[in-house]
From TrEMBL:
<keyword id="KW-0472">Membrane</keyword>
<comment type="function">
    <text>Acts as a magnesium transporter.</text>
</comment>
<feature type="compositionally biased region" description="Basic and acidic residues">
    <location>
        <begin position="1"/>
        <end position="11"/>
    </location>
</feature>
<dbReference type="GO" id="GO:0008324">
    <property type="term" value="F:monoatomic cation transmembrane transporter activity"/>
</dbReference>
<feature type="transmembrane region" description="Helical">
    <location>
        <begin position="182"/>
        <end position="207"/>
    </location>
</feature>
<feature type="transmembrane region" description="Helical">
    <location>
        <begin position="319"/>
        <end position="339"/>
    </location>
</feature>
<protein>
    <recommendedName>
        <fullName>Solute carrier family 41 member</fullName>
    </recommendedName>
</protein>
<dbReference type="GO" id="GO:0005886">
    <property type="term" value="C:plasma membrane"/>
</dbReference>
<feature type="domain" description="SLC41A/MgtE integral membrane">
    <location>
        <begin position="141"/>
        <end position="275"/>
    </location>
</feature>
<feature type="transmembrane region" description="Helical">
    <location>
        <begin position="441"/>
        <end position="461"/>
    </location>
</feature>
<feature type="domain" description="SLC41A/MgtE integral membrane">
    <location>
        <begin position="355"/>
        <end position="498"/>
    </location>
</feature>
<feature type="transmembrane region" description="Helical">
    <location>
        <begin position="104"/>
        <end position="124"/>
    </location>
</feature>
<keyword id="KW-0812">Transmembrane</keyword>
<keyword id="KW-1133">Transmembrane helix</keyword>
<feature type="transmembrane region" description="Helical">
    <location>
        <begin position="213"/>
        <end position="243"/>
    </location>
</feature>
<dbReference type="GO" id="GO:0030001">
    <property type="term" value="P:metal ion transport"/>
</dbReference>
<feature type="transmembrane region" description="Helical">
    <location>
        <begin position="287"/>
        <end position="307"/>
    </location>
</feature>
Length: 515
């Protein structure tokens, strides 16, 4: 056997040199015919060196030897009766700015109207007895909404990436992905709901120094039940959206995360209000109801842990996916404190109805961008591979927004959606007589400035954070979105509060900011 110099170098680098072992026959994958043992002998009957290449896994998760043996197995199927071939993953979609905008537009407005509805619901339920007498529920709202949004958008991003790289193409793979991820988000939702209730109890206890055990159990039961039911409903919706998107030829990254964010806020807030109100009514007559509800959902936790551990795709997230969720909770809680301090001032009462909108829109857009960048990187391999596709540690704003890269193109499209989207949402709030603020020109200018600045900052951070995590072997689908959406809540709430303060200071009485 003769080899060229460059081939010899490759063999020495990637393979091991082994002697020939006599065999009866061997199937040649290249020619599809039998090769006799004599073909491996040299001119004088001596054995020649056979180079055995090291098996490597490519970006699709299929070993090279599997691809080589596929043709050979067709002629000898009896040797391997349990051979399951993975279908070829879908190639990256060729998207223009117009196609990106067209696909994002409908779910963006759908999710935006969901955040508008969430703001209107919050404006109504704040007058219910449970919100009046158990004031810690107000502290629970932003933390629980933010955490639930993080979980659902992370699920949507994870499933979108799996669909785009061909891990949900067969019924068996699809079922494994669904069961593992549904069990995983039930674990995360139950634990996160409990942590959010503890945070609400602590933040409510510190200022007044008064602790009510019945109110604490009410918060825990309401939070855990809300998180569990909302995760179940939203998880099923996300799976249906992603499967339907793939069948229709639509990139799930453009559709799933905005719907998860918008519906997550509305469904979670509605469930929290209804469940807490119902449990509050049972507080005096049936004191055992609240502990019983809390214990029931906690008792289900080992079942979901067992199911999630059996799936390799979710086992790693089950162990390592808690840090971003817990840190995101802390970041969202800071935004909740800003909201609590601002809305409690009668001069800024109108801010409440706009907060879910500006935070929801910013979170929706940055989640789309983070999911798209993550999918783009997954096309080149596993986290940490293909580092040539990652930009420098701190990309310039020009490379993020004005380069010819597909992710830069999508960032420009998403940024262009901010102003028309918020104008529609503001008009909807005004027409429904929500909040306590009249839409004047100066108010709209300040509001739009805050919204644009929020999304601009978030898209730039997303470009840096996703590549930074990828280079450190962290899956951005599991780690980036919780941080980004929590930062969106903090930045959006802070900028909106600053805008209301400036409007009040310059005396924009026409906008009725303090009505």
């Amino acid at each position: 056997m003769s080899s060229k110099p460059e081939q010899k170098e490759t063999h020495q680098a990637n393979g091991a040199v082994l002697p020939v072992v006599p065999v009866d026959c061997h199937t040649s994958p290249d020619r599809g015919q039998l090769v006799e043992p004599s073909d491996f002998l040299g001119p004088h009957g001596n054995g020649v060196e056979v180079v055995v290449l090291e098996s490597r896994a490519n970006a699709k998760g299929v070993r090279e030897e599997d691809a080589l043996l596929e043709n050979g197995s067709q002629s000898n199927e009896s040797d391997d009766t349990n051979t399951e071939r993975h279908p070829e993953p879908a190639s990256p979609l060729k998207e223009t700015s117009f196609s990106i905008g067209l696909q994002v537009l409908f779910p963006f407005f759908l999710a935006g109207f969901g955040t508008v509805a969430a703001g209107m619901v919050l404006d109504i339920v704040q007058h219910w007895d449970v919100f009046k007498y158990v004031t810690e529920v107000f502290i629970l709202v932003p933390a629980l909404l933010g955490l639930k949004g993080n979980l659902e958008m992370t699920l949507a991003s994870r499933l979108s990436t799996a669909a785009n790289i061909g891990q949900m193409d067969t019924p068996k793979e699809l079922w494994k992905m669904i069961t593992g991820n549904m069990a995983l988000i039930q674990v995360q939702a139950t634990v996160v709901g409990f942590l959010a209730s503890i945070a609400a109890v602590v933040f409510g206890w510190i200022p007044d120094g008064h602790f009510n055990i019945s109110h604490a159990v009410l918060l825990c039961a309401s939070s855990v039940a809300t998180a569990f039911i909302a995760s179940l409903v939203l998880g099923m919706i996300m799976i249906g959206v992603i499967i339907g998107s793939r069948k229709m030829g639509i990139n799930p990254d453009n559709v799933a995360t905005p719907i998860a964010a918008g519906l997550g806020d509305l469904i979670t807030l509605a469930l929290l209000s209804g469940i807490s109100c119902g449990l509050y009514k049972e507080l005096e007559s049936k004191v055992y109801v609240n502990p019983l509800v809390f214990s029931f959902f906690i008792a289900l936790l080992p079942i979901w842990v067992f199911i999630a551990k059996k799936n390799p795709a979710t086992r790693e997230v089950l162990y390592s996916g808690w840090e971003p969720v817990v840190i995101a909770m802390a970041i969202s809680s800071v935004g909740g404190l800003i909201l609590d301090r601002t809305v409690s001032d009668p001069n800024f009462a109108g801010m409440a109805v706009f907060t879910p909108v500006i935070n929801g829109v910013g979170g929706n857009l940055v989640a789309v961008q983070a999911s798209r960048i993550s999918t783009y990187l997954h096309m080149s391999g596993m986290p940490g591979e293909g580092l040539e596709t990652a930009p420098r540690k701190c990309p310039s704003p020009c490379s993020t927004f004005f380069s010819s890269d597909v992710n830069s193109r999508s960032a420009r499209v998403l940024l262009l959606l901010v102003v028309p989207g918020h104008l529609v949402f503001l008009y909807t709030i005004s027409s429904m007589q929500g909040g306590h603020t009249t839409l004047t020109l100066i108010f709209i200018v300040f509001y739009m400035t805050a919204a644009l600045l929020q999304v601009l900052i978030l898209l730039y951070i997303a470009d840096w954070m996703v590549h930074w995590m990828w280079g450190r072997h962290l899956d951005p689908d599991n780690f980036s979105i919780p941080y980004l959406t929590a930062l969106g809540d903090l930045i959006g709430t802070g900028l909106l509060a600053l805008s209301f303060h400036i409007l009040w200071l310059i005396g924009d009485r026409d906008s009725d900011v303090g009505d």
